[in-house]
Amino acid sequence: MPESRPPSSSCDTDATKRPTRLLDMLNPCMKGRKRRCGRPTAHDTEELDQYLLEIAAGLFVQHGYAGTSIDQIARKASASKQTIYRRYPSKEALFIAVISDLTGTVLQAMAATPLKDPLEELRHICTLLLDLTLRPDSLGTYRILIADGHRHPSLLRQAVEAIGQPFHNAIVRLLKAAESKGQIEPGNADDTAARLLTGLITGWPLEDSLFGLDPLKSKAEREVFFDRAWAFFLRAVGGRHGLPAA
């Protein structure tokens, strides 16, 4: 069950301050600046939002979803619970925000991908996906979902919608564009092809990483593996490098 929101109050107070990073939650001070009177600026608010997400992410990875509470996050961030609940109505919403923040840059790149050479753009997107999958913070998120997802079905569903579905949709979009330009054979631009491609690129590295092994430790190893997997995919779909002549 997500934590319920506490009764609202007129102000946020917290007597405990982090000695290395004092924060006034009503008027954030993220870089040692003196407190300013009046409403916080948009920049202050953005910095505070990011700071809270970073604190929450670290605690979720360290203690798991079930073992982390809003109280813990508030204490670690020297924030009041009201500061957090004004932004996120529940722990579940905060966890989804942490995941979205983790993947946001890659998803934005995928959404903005041009279609001048869809197959080459798809290759680029898949390299980003492999890199993201093997990041320590991503692996920590995977472990949380494996350990606690069955106890919180809605959390797992929202995580899939926030991460898996956007990646899947972008891959299908690029496959269809490649098919329409004659870069892959007809019939290979569907959900199944997208899932097979994702599994080919990330399946083994993710599995070994979750088992505590350390596959593809160097950039060179990762590139060799990716190039081999991409070549398998191209042969399977009849891929053609570049665009056909006009």
How would you explain this protein's 3D organization?
The chain has helices at 42-63, 70-76, 81-87, 91-111, 118-133, 136-148, 153-180, 191-210, 219-237. It contains nine helices and no strands. With 246 residues, it is an all-alpha fold. The radius of gyration is 22 Å and the shape is elongated.
Question: Compute the gyration radius: what is it?
Answer: 22 Å
* Unreliable sequence segments: 4-40
Order of helices and strands: HHHHHHHHH
Q: What does the average pLDDT come to?
A: 81
- Beta-strand percentage range: under 5%
Shape: elongated
Q: How much helicity do the residues have?
A: 55-70%
What does the largest sheet look like? Answer: none
Structural category is mainly alpha
Count every beta strand, where a strand is a DSSP E run of 2 or more residues.
0
Q: Provide a count of the helices.
A: 9
Distance between the termini: 58 Å
